[in-house]
Each structure stands twice: as structure tokens, then as C-alpha cells.
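New to this. Please check both lines:
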Amino acid sequence: MFDTFQSAPGGCALPELSAAGVDCAALSAEQLVDVVAAVERLVARAHGLQLTALAELGRRCAAAGAGEGHPSSEYVGALECAAAEVAPACRWTRTMAEHRVELAAQLEQRLPATLAALSEGRIDLNRARAMAEATEPLDADAAAVAEARVLARAGSQTAAQLRVCLRRAVLAVDPVGAEHRHQVAVGKRRVEVRQLPDGVAELIAPMRADHAEAIYARLSDIARQVLAAHRAGSRAGPDRNRPVHDDEPGLDSLRADALAWLTLGEPMPGLPVPAIDATPPAASTGSGAIGVAGNPTANSARPAARGCAHCGSERPKPLVRVVVPVGTVLGVTDEPAELAGYGPIPASLARELAADAQWRRILTDPATGATVATETRSYTPPASMSALVRARDGTCRFPGCRQPASRVDLDHVLPWPHGQTCPCNLCSLCRFHHLLKTHHGWRLRIDPDTADVTWTSPLGRRYTTSADGIPPLDGGSSAQLRLARLSLRRTA
């Protein structure tokens, strides 16, 4: 019975699963995971068949002349006619039916390899939809090039990871169009309020990505300082035996409070006005570490910012991290840059940000793109090494996690002092996945050459993730020097 799930590379054939008579209670934990994965592949293959049928139905409606011979005000196109047929059959709304028929046509006509991957169970519907949405602005030839760049890895990525790779591919294959779309999108920046239940509303503000990341960093800095003040006050209170964290607010709540505090100019209710640390972080010179250099005089000409309780006063400017190919900085190429916490950004925005920056150089291996190693004898990595590892990783290194490396822990893969404090033994882990590794039986190892991280679950299943922060250059380009801006200070 269980062999049914492993018999074909793409998973079960459509009729096989219903006939398998699976008794989940009789399966091992590892087999249960296999069943879940097999069903996911089965659903993907079913979606592939469904989209193929929808594309054929759309063609037949077009061949039958649907919508022809009517005034423009009464015209209904072939796709709309096909959607009208399937909507009642599938209990779909008109909008959902039209979107599904349009997706089928896009995949069949522009992205046939993506439709094939879906039909074989190698990607799911969400990934297929992401492919279609990301390549929609491109012409057919450029869409095919972007598809070829990302499809091979798409099955091993989450939909969110795939979208980042797609944005990078679209920027690379159509830099001129990407610049135009960026300017249009920035022109639509706005602030909206969306009403939510229970006396809560949501503030939505589409804006430039670097501004959004800087604002988030600023709110996080304030939230951490308020939380530290709250903990200090709890320790000094009359009930010193009460656990410090019993009633402390979370960082997410404090970020929201900080946003209100900054914009309204009022103290956060129930909490002390934070004394903002106005001293800019010192630039690290790398202390002679191989492949890493700093700018020790970047802040020397700038007056120290003053923190106060009024929104109009001068404030320290938050840290924004960007990884930019040297060719882009010099204007030789338009290869996209990587904004920490966001992903790829157009070359024009990267050059604009580069004009107001402190830089560290990060050297990468010409063959693999891996960063050049450094090490220290202490437990805590120096600032230059931390920056290098975070720039290399991009995100938490657990499979599928998109927490930016700038907001997570640096973990010794082999615990110190048995393991060195060096990039080959450090990786970025969010707190949750750090706890999984430390206390819940997950193991990992890191390849010292490629920085690939291989995880082994408590059930013995293995998963490998690649460093996401400094993508390899296409075609073995000799421009392997990447400049990582580590302390850009801009007004949010």
C-alpha cells in the first residue's frame, strides 16, 4: 500500500490515492510526512490537469467565435465565455473563474515549462501563479528567459522565496522596464486606513522599499529600548520575586506604540518616554580581517544626533543594509542590488543609496560566489564578521524561513569553543529555529566552501538551503567584488 506513494517521481497518479485505502494510524511518523508530501504533489498534478483543460476550453470558445459580431458594449471575450461555463460547475465566483482561466492561458502560451512542472507535481499552484504574475510585464521572449533562470530551483523553494528570485530575474532581464515600473510604483505611494474588528484599524503605507526598511529599523530600535527600560523597572520594583517577563509588552506591540509616539508626539501609554541612544554605531575597520574593510572616518564629520521627545527634533538615522555589485555602483552594469529585509531593488535606486553610505567590501570566490573566510578566537564575532555572515545569508537559514538576517541570531553550528567563531561555523537563525536546533533535536551542518546548510530533522529527513544574501553572478562574470553598505543613514 505505502509503495503507491513512492512509485513515481512526481507522486501518485490521480486515481491511485483514493484507491490506496490509507490507514494513517498504521504508518510511522516518517511515513506520515511522506503521505503529506505525496498528497501535495497529487494536488499540484490535479491543478496542472485542470489548467490544461481550462486552456483548451478557452481555445475552443475562441474558435467558436465567442463574442464576435456584437457591439463593443455587448462584447464578451472567449476567456469570459469559458469562465462562465466553469464558474457554476465549480461553484466559483465569476472573478475567481476568470482569474483561473486567464492563468491557464498565460501558462500555456507564455510559460509552458511552468505548466509542465505543475502537471508533474514539481511545483504547486501558488508557485505557478507567482511565475505568471512576476513575468506578466515582460514580453514573451523575456518571460521565457526569466522562467528559465528560476524554474529549476522553484520546487525546492517556498512561494515567497520564489517571488524574491523572480523579482531578481525580472530586474536582470528587463532593467529598463523595471526602472519604469519602479518609478510608476513610487508615484503611487500613499497612506490608507483599513478598518478591522474590535476597535482596531490597519495603517497601510506603500512607499520606497528603503524608506520602509529604515522606518521599521527605527521602530525596532525604539521598541527594544522601551522593552529594556520596562525590564529594568520590573527588576527594581517592590515584587522582585515576580518573573520579569510576566506582563512585559511584545516587540510587535511596542513597534506600533512607537509609530504612534513618533507621529503624534505623545508618550506611549503606561511606559516611560524612551531615552533614545543618539550615538551612531562606530564603524568597524575589520581589524585586519581578510576580505573585509571598513571606513573608519565615515561618521567623523557628522555631528552627533540628539534624541528628544519631540518628533521634529534631530534623531539618529537607522541602519539600512544593501549588497550591490561593483559594476552597478560604477554604472557599468544594471545588475540589481539586494536590500536586506526586502530583496532585489533596481540599479538606479541602488546607485542613489550608494551616494550616502558607509561601505565595507566583501570579497567572494570567483568560482562559487562564497564569501572569503575570517575567524576570531573569541565567542562573540566582531562586527565585521557578523556583517559578512548576515550579508551572505540574507535570511534565517531554516528551509522556507524569510526572517531577514539583520533581525536574527548568529549561531555557532558546532558549539563554541569546540567550533570556531568564523563564517564557516556561523549561520543566521531566527529565535524559533534557533530553539529547534538547540533543544528539539534538529541538527545542521554548513559546507565551508559553498555555505550551504543541511538540516536533519528528528525524523531523519534532510533539507538543504543555500545562502540567499549574495546571489552568484551569471555567466561566471569576473566582477566578483561585492560592496555591502552596512551603515547607510537616511531620513526615513
